[in-house]
Amino acid sequence: MNKQLLSKIKLKQARVGIVGLGYVGLPLAVEFASAGFSVTGIDTSIERVDQINKGGNYIVDVDDVKLASLVESGLLTSTSDYSAVLDLDAISICVPTPLSKLKD
Question: Is the pLDDT of residue 100 over 90?
Fold first, then answer.
């Protein structure tokens, strides 16, 4: 890891991206944002993206008030535009992994 990135992480200036805002990705995004990082969530579902950007929640394990507060503060945003990764320092991919030819 380069020194510039380490410095950004220590100073909470690193921009974090989470690809996939399901039952793993959204809680992870909330935790990074709660720690003070700027987080961009990326998902193919326009409905999920719109709901998050309005401060709405659809995951039981995520506190509604906390999520809304993080969105309002600007620490957490979401998009369906994958070109957002160009502006990020770190990316976590949280998408389902198919286990068979039938993707189950």
Answer: no
